[in-house]
Amino acid sequence: MTSMNDSIDPVARPARFGLFGRCLRTSMTGRVGFGLVMFVVIVAIFGPLLTPYAPKDQSAMYAVGANARPSADHWLGTDRLGYDILTQLLYGARTALVVGLGAVLISGCAGILIGGIAGYRGGWTDEVLMRFAEFFLVVPIFIIILAVVRVLSKAVTGTAFETMPYFNLTVIILMIGLFGWAPIARMTRGEFLRIKTLEFVQAARCGGQSGRQIVLSEILPNAFPSIVVLIALEIGGAILAEAMISFLGFGDPNAVSWGQMLYFNYQSLKIWPMASLAPGFMIFITVLGFNLLADGLSDAANPRARRR
Amino acid sequence: METGRYILRRLIYAAIMMLCTSAVIFFLINSLGNPVELMLAETPGVSQETVDLISAQYGLDKPLIQRYFIWIGDLLRLDFGTSITYNLPVGGMIWSWGLHSMQIQIPAIILSVAVAICAGTWAARRQHSRQDFTVMGTVLLGQSMPAFFLGIILIYIFSFVLGWFPSYGAISTRRLLWGSALFDGLWHMVLPVAMISMFNIATLTLLVRTNMIDTLRQDFIRTARASGLKEGEIIRRHALRMVMLPVITYVGLLLGLMLGTSPVTETVFTWPGLGALYVMAIQQLDYPLIMGISIVIAVMLILMTTLTDILYALIDPRVRLE
GO CC: one term (chain A) (predicted)? Predict the structure, then answer.
C-alpha cells in the first residue's frame, strides 16, 4: 500500500505544486500576466491606504468642481460627479477581484463537481450531465443575466433584501457564477475521462483504494493544471462581464466599480477623457493579466504543446 | 441516408434546446414578480384593484405555467405581443431594430474573416520570426481588450481629437455627408464596425495561424511542394481549404452571437439596434419586449450553431460518424 503510493506520487506532485513556478520560470507571457494580476491584487489590498478620500466623498465639488484636471489634491482629477478618480480606481480593484473570485468560486466548484461526476461515472450519467452543460453553453448568458439583475433589483422593493448591502453586486456575482460552470465542467470531464484510464489510476484501484480516494488523490490533482488555466480565464471573463453590466447601468449603486465609472462618465468623454479612459484601462490590464496568466499556465501545464 | 439522419437528429436536438431556453427565459424573468406590480412599484397611490385590472388586461392573472404555454403558442404563430412602453407589435420592432444591428455586425464579420485569413497565413508562413511575434502579440492584446474600452478609445481619437468620424447614431440628423444617405450611413458605420471586427480579427487570426501551421506540416502539402508547385499556390489551393473548416465553425458562432453582444456595442455608439432596444426595454421593464428580444437572440444562436454543424457535416463526412 505504502510502496504503491510512493511510486504514484512523483506523477501527481510536480503537477500540483510546480505549476505556478514553472509558469513563471518558462513563460514570458505568464510572468507579465502574473505581474499584472499581482499589481491589481496589491492595489485592492493596500489601495485605500494611498488615498485620503472615502469612495463616496463628493466634497471636491465644493473645492475644484466636477471634471477637474489633475492637481496636488486630486492626482488624476475628479469625475463628472465630483468623485476623486484615483480613489475610485483604487476601490474599484476590490470590487473587480471580489466579482472575479466570487463568481469563479461558484462556477469552479459546480463545474468541477458536475464535470468530475460525469467523467468518472461515464455512461448514462455522463450523457445527461453533459447535455445539461451543453445547454448552458448555447444560451445567451449575458442577455439573461442583464434581465434577471434588473428585474431582481426591482422585485426586492419593500422586502428585507432591499436594505441588504451590495445586494445587486451579490446577484451579479451569483448569476455570473451560476451561468459560467459549463466550460469548466466540460474540461474537467475530458480530463477525468483521459486520466481514469491511465496506469497509475489502475494501479491505485488494484491497491484497494476507494473510488473517492482515487478521485481526490489521483485523478483530481492530475486534472488540476488544465482546470486552473480555464479558471484564470474565467476570472478575467467574470470581471469583464461585471464591467459590461455596470457600464450598461445595471450595476450596484453602492459598489465602486470600474464599469460603473464608465457608465457615469462616458457622456462627458469629450470634456474630461481621463474619467472614462482610466477605468477602461484598469479593466483592460486586469483582464489582460488573467488572460496572459492563463496562457502561461497552459504552456506550463502542457510543455509538449508549447513550441508549435 | 447517413447525412439525412444526422441532420434530422441535429434539428430535433435544436428544437429541444430552444424549448428549454424559452422555459429558462420565461420562468427566470416572470417568477420574480408580477410585471405590472414591478412597473408600478414606485408609483404612489395605485390601488390593488388597478393592479389587478391591468394584470388581467395583459393576461397576467392566469397561473405561470398556463401563461408559459400561451406565450409559446403565440411565439409559434410569430406573435410576440405588444410592447408596453411603445404600444407597437414587438415582432415588427425586433425586425426593424434588428436590421440596424445587422448593418454593422455583418460587414464586421466579413471584414474580420478577410483580415484574419491574410494576417494568420502571413504569420504562419513566418513562424517564430519577428513578424510572427508581432502579430501574435497584437492578437493577445486584442483578445484582452474589452470591446467597449476599444470603442471609447476609437471615439476619443477619431471622433473628438481628429474629428474624422461621427461618435454616435446611424445617420446625421442635420446635414447628410455629401448629401447622400448612402455615404452618410457608411460614414457612421466605420467606427462601430472597426470596434466589432477588432476582437474577432484577434481570435480568428489565432485560429487561422494555428491551423495553417498544422496543415503546412502535413504530407499532402509536402507532396505538393515536391511536385514543384509554388508556395503561394499551395497555400491558396490546398492549405486554405483545410484551414477554412474551423473558420466556418467560428463564423457560424459569430453569426449566432452577434445579437447577443450588441447591447454593449450599441450603447457605446448610441446605435439604434436591437441591443440598444434591449437595454431600453430592461430599463423600462417592458416584459413583452424583454422576452421577445431574448428569445430571438437565443433562437438565433441555437439555429446558427445547428446550421454550422450541418454544414460542417456536409463538407467533412468524418463528423457524421461520431
Answer: plasma membrane
pLDDT in tens, B151-170: 889 888 888 888 788 877 77
The answer to whether residue A197 is domain-embedded is yes
B153 in reach of chain A (CB within 8 A): yes
In a domain, A55, yes or no: no
**Domain at A187, CATH number:** 1.10.3720.10
Give me the long-range contacts of B159-166 (CB less than 8 A, separation at least 24).
B159/B191, B160/A269, B160/A270, B160/A273, B165/B190, B165/B191, B166/B191
Interface with chain B: mutation pick from A142, A146, A151, highest number of B CBs within 10 Å: A151
Question: Is residue A293 domain-resident?
Answer: yes
List pLDDT tens digits, range A281-298: 999 999 999 988 988 888
pLDDT, one tens digit per residue, over B25-49 is 888 888 777 777 777 766 777 777 8
Compare CB distances from A280 to B152, B267, B279 and report the shortest one's residue.
Answer: B152
DSSP 3-state of A256 = coil
Question: Which member of A139, A154, A291 has the closest CB to residue B144?
Answer: A291
Q: Which residue of B has its CA nearest to A241?
A: B146
Amino acid at B241: R
Is the CB of residue B84 less than 8 Å from the CB of residue B173?
A: no
B155 and A269: CB-CB below 8 Å? yes
- Direct distance between the N- and C-terminal alpha carbons of chain B, in angstroms, rounded to an integer: 15
Residues of B in contact with A277 (CB under 8 A): 152-153, 156
Looking at the 3D structure of chain A, how many domains does it have? 1
Q: Tell me: ipTM over 0.95.
A: no
Q: pLDDT tens for residues B177-222?
A: 676 777 777 888 888 998 888 888 988 998 888 888 888 888 888 8
Q: Exposed, middle or buried by CB within 10 Å (0-12, 13-18, 19+), for B31?
A: exposed
Q: Domain limits at A173? A: 26-50+74-306
Inter-chain touch B260–A269, beta carbons under 8 Å = no
Q: What is the pLDDT of residues B246-257, one digit of tens each?
A: 888 888 888 888
Q: Contact A138/B305, CB-based, under 8 Å?
A: yes
User: pLDDT band at B111, cuts 50/70/90?
Assistant: very high
Q: Are B298 and B96 in contact (CB under 8 A)?
A: no
Domains of chain B: 2-76 (no CATH), 90-316 (1.10.3720.10)
Residue A306: pLDDT over 60 = no
